[in-house]
Amino acid sequence: MLRRTVITAAAAGLSLPWLAAPARAQQRYASLHVFVPAGPGGGWDGLGRAIEQVGRAAGLVGNFQFENVGGAGGTVGLPRFIQQRRGREGSIMVGGAVMVGSVLANKSPVGLKDVTPIARMTTEPGIIVVPASSDIKDLKGFLDALKSNPGGTSVAGGSAGGMDHILLGLLLKNQGRSAKEASYVAFAGGGPAQAAILGAQVRAGISGVSEFAEQIKAGRMRALATSGETRSLPDVPTLKESGIDLVLGNWRGVFGPPGIKPETRADLLRFVTELHALPAWKELMERQGWEDAFLPGDAFVDFLKRDEAATADVLREVGLI
Predict the structure, then answer these.
(1) What whole-number distance in Å separates Cα of residue 150 and Cα of residue 31?
(2) Residue 22 DSSP symbol
(3) Contact 126/164 with Cβ under 8 angstroms?
(4) Which CATH architecture describes the domain 9-124+252-317?
(5) Helices and strands counted in the chain (H then E)
(6) 190: which of 5, 41, 197, 304 fits an S-S bond (Cβ 3.0–4.6 Å)?
(7) How large is the angle between the packed helices 97-105 and 297-317, nearest 10 degrees?
(8) CATH says 125-226 is which class?
């Protein structure tokens, strides 16, 4: 099976003069506009709210203003951010791997090449879940259902062409079926996808571990497997442990508007680097089940070029483009 992973935090060991952050940091922004090209409750929104929580408590930012515009894996909101925030200071967008795939799958005329990459922040594996009342008891049961009746095994996830869709396509291929046979139900945000799974409107769901963790803990969802290299939840096996040689990570990061001045980009880099260095940020990542994938500046730009090429290869292989 195709293996697609992200660069680890160790690969991002860059020497930056502003890396060390004091306990109470210098304020960088009196107000910061955070644009999330997805609905509330999903992974991008979660990262944005985490930046708010830690950044405000540390004194890096006075106030935050959020704007959520969901749809089509970020390709609905992205043009709005590009048009309305071009060249403006004090504004960031949260996005990630899902948008890379969605831009390709939806043949969007704009993409991440049209904004200013600041830093990759986190990555997390995907997780496959079913409602607690489901007759599917384990990963084998889910794979058997996919193999025997892919059209009748509806799976909720994020936007078409994103990481959730790719993971389902790779699992179908593993079972000797085509990704085109999938009954994939795309949602603009984690909240609606959760509602569909809990209401048994679909047979299963795929998303990032953090998006379903509370529902799993509460016993409302049953976790079947995760797509990480190692376990994210102690009682949930990885796909590798279950005999499927597949590792897939979902990275998320921060972007500035297009057309900003070099000094504006440097300010944003300084802000996210100081945020990342805070102990509170590391504690929050542990609670959320996120892996540290910090990669700032030009290194992030280079990563994006490689990631887009790799994503295109995966989408072609599983028949999604």
Answers:
(1) 48
(2) -
(3) yes
(4) 3-Layer(aba) Sandwich (3.40)
(5) 10, 10
(6) 41
(7) 50
(8) alpha beta
Q: Residue 53: enclosing H or E segment and its boundaries?
A: helix 43-57
135: which 2 tokens? 């007759």
User: Please, where in the chain does CATH 3.40.190.10 lie?
Assistant: 125-226
Query: Could you give the count of Cα atoms lying within 13 Å of 142 in the half-sphere of its Cβ?
Result: 27
Q: Residue 110: phi, psi to the nearest 5? A: -120, 155
* Rounded Cα gap, residues 25 and 61, in angstroms: 9
Confidence of residue 189 (pLDDT cuts 50, 70, 90): low
Angle at 171 between CA 167 and CA 176, to 5 degrees: 145
Residues of the chain with CATH 3.40.190.150: 9-124+252-317
Q: Output the six-digit token pair for 183.
A: 């009954």
- Cβ–Cβ < 8 Å for 121, 285: no
3-state secondary structure of 74: helix
Q: Which amino acid is at 96?
A: G
What is the rounded distance in angstroms from the CA atom of residue 202 to the CA atom of residue 103?
A: 25
The mean-pLDDT minimum among 26-30, 52-56, 105-109, 218-222 falls in 105-109
Structure tokens at 20: 């060390």
d(CA 159, CA 106) in angstroms, rounded, equals 10
SS3 61: strand
86-105 tens-digit pLDDT? 999 999 999 999 999 999 98
Q: Provide the pairing of β-strand 91-96 with 29-36.
A: parallel
> Which has more confidence, 194 or 319?
194
Cα–Cα distances (Å) from 93 to 99, 186, 246, 269, in that order, read 12, 22, 30, 13
Confirm whether pTM is higher than 0.85.
no
The torsion region of residue 94 among left (phi > 0), alpha (psi -120 to 50) and beta comes to beta
